[in-house]
Design a protein that fits this description.
There is one protein chain. The chain is α+β, with helices and mostly antiparallel strands. It contains 3 helices and 5 strands; from the N terminus they run ββββαβαα. The longest helix is centred in the middle third of the chain and has 9 residues. It is globular, with a radius of gyration of 12 Å. β3 and β4 form a beta hairpin.
């Protein structure tokens, strides 16, 4: 099963990549594809929307935090239409 989850980058300041990764991999394990970027300190987000839609259509499940990020970006409203 594939999940969309956060992968930490940076030592002192927490910066996260949003990645599609196999469930059995650890947090810093090998990801399938990088699909976004999230900086909680500056509250910046970059999303590769076509890649995220592709993985969601194939059955990938976002974690709770990633689901919240995608909901803020109104990705699910576009999918419902």
């Amino acid at each position: 099963m594939v999940k969309l989850r956060l992968k930490r980058c940076g030592r002192k300041q927490a910066i996260y990549r949003i990645v599609a990764i196999d469930v059995r991999s650890r947090r810093e394990g090998r990801d399938l594809q990088k699909v976004g970027f999230y900086d909680p300190i500056q509250n910046q987000t970059y999303l590769n929307v076509p890649a995220i839609r592709y993985f969601l259509e194939k059955g990938a499940q976002p974690t709770g935090t990633v689901h919240g990020i995608l909901r803020k970006a109104e990705l699910f409203k576009e999918r419902a239409s």
